[in-house]
Amino acid sequence: MIFIISFALIIGGWVGWKNDLNVATFFNSILLLIGVGFAEELIFRGWLWGEFNRFIGFRWSGFIQAILFSLAHIRFDIGFFSMLSLLIGLFLLGMVLNFRRILDHGSIWGCVGLHGGLVGFWFLFTQSFYKLSEDAPAPSWLMGSLSEGGNPLAGFFSILILLSLLIYQFKAVAIAPKPLRGARSEFSNGAIP
């Protein structure tokens, strides 16, 4: 997703090349990849989803957890519509990560890699490889509020990518064979959600 967004930014002429990769930025992106990915997934897809699943059931636990995931990342330093689109993008990312955990039979490692990869690679790209154009900024409705130091998930482009991925994952879960054992059967009692 980061590569697709970066390609669109380059084709649109909204970024210029910076080529300022250094060891500190590289290690910082690795730490973000591991730290943010592991910490947030342990909390949201690990503990919180498990608690909601225990109290309100499998069908609603992922949905409510994705809402809380998006609200935990709320920002008040951007405009209302930018914040609303960011919440929608983060909710869709939360749902994509939920389905990733289901497809991984209850393991959060795929979620850690996906979430951490998005954060780490976005940091690496924006700090080392390109800078946003001040003359022709990317439209915020299309690419998110990047000029405000925002998240690319707030843009229509990212929301469309996440929605497509969510539909693909939903189909994959629907046709997956029923697990006979393993972590996923603890969530759904042997039935596909």
What is the structure about, briefly put?
The protein is mainly alpha-helical. The chain is 69% helix and 3% strand.
Describe the model.
Helix 2 packs antiparallel against helix 3 (58-72). The protein has 193 residues and is mostly helical. It has a two-stranded antiparallel sheet. The chain has helices at residues 2-11, 23-56, 58-72, 80-103, 109-129, 140-143, 156-175, 183-188; strands spanning 15-17, 130-132. The longest helix is centred in the N-terminal third of the chain and has 34 residues, at 23-56. Helix content is 69%, strand content 3%. It has one domain (22-180). The radius of gyration is 18 Å and the shape is globular. It contains eight helices and two strands; from the N terminus they run αβααααβααα.
Large-scale geometry:
globular
Helix content: 55-70%
What's the end-to-end separation, in Å?
26 Å
Residue windows where pLDDT falls under 50 for at least 5 positions: 179-186, 188-193
Q: In total, how many beta strands?
A: 2
Q: Largest sheet, order of strands side by side?
A: 1-2
**Structural class estimated from helices and strands:** mainly alpha
Along the chain, the helix and strand elements come as HEHHHHEHHH
**Domains (count):** 1
Could you describe the largest sheet, including whether it forms a barrel?
A: 2 strands, antiparallel
What is the count of helical runs?
A: 8
Cα gyration radius (Å): 18 Å
Mean of the pLDDT scores?
82
The percent range for strand residues is: under 5%
